[in-house]
Specification:
The chain is of the alpha/beta class. It folds into two domains: 201 residues, NAD(P)-binding Rossmann-like Domain (Rossmann fold, 3-Layer(aba) Sandwich), CATH 3.40.50; 35 residues, no CATH class. 47% of the residues lie in helices and 15% in strands. It has nine helices and seven strands. The chain has a seven-stranded parallel sheet with strand order 3-2-1-4-5-6-7, sandwiched between helices. The protein starts with 8 loop residues before the first strand and ends in a 5-residue tail after the last helix. The relative contact order is 0.14.
Length: 264
């Protein structure tokens, strides 16, 4: 691993599992000090302990990213701890209920919007002033291939991820001249607990692993990504090596968006 993030202080939300956890290990291995956030206290403590055990530096904080007072709390704590925040990976998200739009209740829709969209907005609202005052910083939000395509039976998730890309583009237009970069990664199918849960929900009498394989055929690579394959791209976008990449939703999807390979 390189040391391209040496000396950088980075906040990671949704760090207790999946993409967030894998990314945390990559960022730490490249020299970053981490402030890890997750709704599940046990999971985020375990994540921080695993980073430290591997030789990295990490602190843990349990918080709900959809609640402004909690976002303010951990942002201020990270700033007190370090004196600056160089990077922020706003990764916390949920999939929500699988089903037809007309079968989704308002409460079910709002629950996804609260975490995926309001959480992303609050991250930007409270970290951008810190970075602007520093004259430097990089933010990466987790979008999805659903940021660019209409996917059936996931209307709340799809709407939230479209909106995340809008947040990135608008924020980029506002702060780029102030030394702050804002981008998004757009993962395709990634082998995470969220994907496994989704597959199990729609599997019916089929094996969920078979469903994951079928879902992954939208990519010409034909398999789900490993969480670390997303994390490597996040690490790059948070590093100075990506100094001229701004306002972008970068697909990390095995070619799904570029090829529209929908063969069954």
């Amino acid at each position: 691993m390189s040391d391209r993030l040496m000396g950088k202080n980075i906040v990671v939300t949704g760090a207790g599992s999946g993409i967030g956890l894998a990314t945390a290990h990559i960022l730490a291995s490249e020299g970053a000090s981490l402030f890890l956030v997750d709704l599940k206290a046990d999971a985020v403590r375990a994540a921080a302990n695993s980073v430290v055990a591997a030789g990295g530096r990490a602190l843990a904080w349990a918080a709900d990213v959809s609640r402004e007072e909690e976002v303010v709390g951990f942002t201020e704590c990270a700033l007190r701890e370090w004196g600056r925040i160089d990077g922020y990976f706003a990764n916390a998200g949920i999939g929500g209920r699988i089903g037809a739009l007309t079968d989704l209740s308002l409460e079910q829709f709002r629950s996804v919007i609260d975490v995926n969209l309001i959480g992303a907005f609050l991250a930007l609202r409270h970290v951008l002033p810190v970075m602007v005052a520093q004259g430097q910083g990089a933010v990466v939000l987790t979008g999805s291939v659903a940021s660019e395509r209409g996917l059936p039976f996931t209307v709340a998730y799809n709407a939230s991820k479209h909106a995340v890309l809008g947040l990135v583009r608008s924020a980029a237009a506002e702060v780029g001249h102030q030394g702050v970069r804002v981008n998004a990664v757009l993962p395709g199918m990634v082998d995470t607990p969220m994907l496994r849960t989704t597959a199990a929900t729609i599997a019916a009498d089929r094996d969920s692993s078979e469903v994951v394989r079928d879902m992954s055929r939208v990519s010409p690579i034909g398999r789900p990504a490993r969480p670390s394959e997303i994390g490597e791209v996040v690490a790059f976008l948070l590093s100075d090596a990506a100094s001229y990449i701004h306002g972008v939703g970068l697909p990390v999807d095995g070619g799904a968006l570029g090829t529209m390979n929908n063969a069954g």
